[in-house]
Amino acid sequence: MLITEKTQLLGIIGNPIQHSLSPVIQNQAIATLNLDYIYLPFLVKEDDLSKAFDCFKAIKLRGFNVTIPHKKNVIPFLKKVTETAEIIEAVNVVWLTEEGWHGTNTDIDGFLASFKKLSKDWHNITPLILGNGGGGRAVTVGCSKLGCREIKIVGRNLYKLRAFQERWNNYSFATKISIYHWDNLSELIPDSELIINATPIGMSPHIKNSPLTDLQISLIKQNTIVYDLIYTPSPTLFLQQAQKQGAIIIDGSEMLIQQGAIAFEIWTGKSAPIDIMLNSMLSKS
Ligand code: NAP
User: What percent of the chain has pLDDT over 70?
Assistant: First the structure.
């Protein structure tokens, strides 16, 4: 499709942004359906968010994805936010309407896509989530939707964790949240049947990093499900280490595709070609 003044603009904002495969999968979906859109990566620094919104309004950007570290900070710029995205203070999809920007969170359904297929007694599984940023909070809702009775969240900032726990307790989630400082991680690993990395530790270009030390890796039980939200590299060092330990590993690829497919449908009103999006991602990673 020829790019003209009528071509509608979509994109993704983040910092860093070079790791993102969203431009690959979204532009492939656009090309497959022969739509007059283009999807671009925008490096937006934390302090430049306001300027970015002004710019997007001026050029009538139709919609965009939001990635690390902006998922919470975009909310004050939005006219309307879906309830769950508001509760967890994490928006990953924004679109322009006549009254202004609207936002939602499609990471939750993206995460659930990988897990709904596994037949597990989720009620009796207590996930251990590392990190409590936008992705971690979406995954917390996802685990609650799976039916987990309790979720353990580990972070390096207890103040932020407490604020999230208080917020969570104000809403009618059936799931209990327990919070722990990163220093207590080693004690939590042996009892965990599902460990989820929702930090950027190990993400490209820092591919030699892992959220767990070698000693902590050795505490992972066989057949533990170890999930990493990161999809570049795939698998991360963390997943490779966990696999050697006998864990069942899952990376963030399906989450990326599924959250992106819902976003595509919001922006274009067309059904997303999921298999083609997945193949385009696999050929690039
Ligand atoms: P975010 O909002 O910036 O949150 C990052 C979280 O990681 C925060 O809780 C942060 O703690 C913690 N953290 C960062 N560095 C740490 C360290 N060295 N030690 C301990 N904790 C650390 O980012 P996000 O949007 O949640 O993204 C997190 C990762 O998930 C990224 O790699 C992102 O690409 C990935 N992700 C993937 C998908 C997908 O579709 N597959 C979707 C969402 C996210 P503080 O709060 O203390 O800073």
Answer: 100
For position 177, what pLDDT does the model report?
97
Is the pTM value of this prediction over 0.90? yes
- The binding-site residues of ligand 1, defined as CB within 6 angstroms of any ligand atom, are 67-69, 71, 107, 110, 131-136, 155-157, 160, 182, 198-201, 203, 229-231, 252, 255-256, 259
User: What gap in Å lies between CA 21 and CA 196, rounded to an integer?
Assistant: 21
Task: Please give the average per-residue pLDDT across 75-95, as a whole number.
Answer: 96
Ligand 1, atom 37: closest residue by C-alpha = 229
The 10s digit of each residue's pLDDT in 31-40 is: 999 999 999 9
Q: Which of the four pLDDT bands, split at 50, 70 and 90, describes residue 1?
A: confident
Helix (H) or strand (E) holding 12: strand 8-14
Please pick, among 45, 71, 120, 160, the residue that the annotation labels catalytic.
71
CA–centroid distance, 7 to ligand 1, in Å, is 33
Residue pair 29/273 in contact (Cβ under 8 Å)? The answer is yes
The rounded Å distance from CA 153 to ligand 1 centre is 13
Measured distance CA(236)–CA(240) in Å, rounded:
6
> What are the Cα distances from residue 223, in Å, to 245, 246, 274?
9, 6, 29
- Predicted confidence at residue 15, as pLDDT, reads 96
Candidate of 12, 19, 20, 68 to mutate for ligand 1, largest count of ligand atoms within 8 Å of Cβ: 68
Q: What are residue 250's DSSP bridge partners?
A: 227
Cβ-based neighbours of 121, under 8 Å, separated by 6 or more: none
Contacts of 132 (CB under 8 A, 6+ apart): 140, 153, 155, 160, 161, 164, 198
Give me the pLDDT at residue 224, please. 97
